Amino acid sequence: MVGASAGRFISFEGIDGSGKSTQARRLAEALEPTALLTREPGGAPGAEEIRRLLVEGAPARWSPETEILLFTAARRDHLEKTIRPALDQGRVVITDRFADSTRVYQGAARAALRPLVDRLHDLMIGIEPDLTFLIDMDPEAALARGLARQSGEDRFETLGLAFQRDLRAGFLELAQSAPERIHVIDGTRDADSIAEDILNQYHAWCAA
Ligand code: ADP
Ligand code: TYD
What we know:
The chain is α/β, with parallel strands linked by helices. It has one domain: 3-Layer(aba) Sandwich (Rossmann fold), CATH 3.40.50. Helix content is 55%, strand content 13%. It contains eight helices and five strands. Strands 2-3-1-4-5 form a five-stranded parallel sheet, with helices on both faces. The protein is globular, with a radius of gyration of 16 Å. Bound molecules: adenosine-5'-diphosphate and thymidine-5'-diphosphate (TYD). Thymidine-5'-diphosphate (TYD) binds next to helix 1 and helix 4.
């Protein structure tokens, strides 16, 4: 929770190609002009520089520990330069990925380093989104969508189908452990239906 901040902090999570970016953008458009759309890794100039170090190059470029430090450094910059100032202005901050991605990718799927991930989060980040939408879908279909983009940012996506299955299980486990915050969304539907569902859930959550 973001405590005394006036704004609302919302994250989108899920495996690669699940439709997170599409849905984060759709919600931001629906909540204009109060919404600020941002993403991780990145979301601030320095954090975007760190992003390039993380998403380009060979899969074994960084050790799992170094990778956690880089994601955490990028997140800290994002928090300081973009998220906190916007929340203080009362805006709805919508981020495409946040700390749940590190818990699942670095804490469980790529390496079993969850205790380290949690300690660094407590030391350096210390906040959770108020609300998280987990876009859940079959990794096979999601992987096909993701690879179709050919963005050059494929260091994580080339890790394969078995890896994406581990990720999906990891995200669903997190959702079970935090059911109030993490809303699981069926990502297999068409983009319009998903966007409508998410907007309805957002309004219901605001009213609760
Ligand atoms: P992510 O951010 O999770 O990687 P994207 O939103 O970038 O996912 O979507 C990945 C690809 O799938 C894009 O080409 C996008 O246009 C397409 N896509 C997104 N949502 C849907 C959907 N509900 N049905 C079919 N294709 C989709
Ligand atoms: P992203 O740009 O969201 O990729 P995609 O749109 O394909 O889902 O994120 C880039 C990659 O970084 C993605 O494979 C997930 C990975 N990642 C982590 O491993 N840990 C993290 O903490 C974050 C934020 C992302």
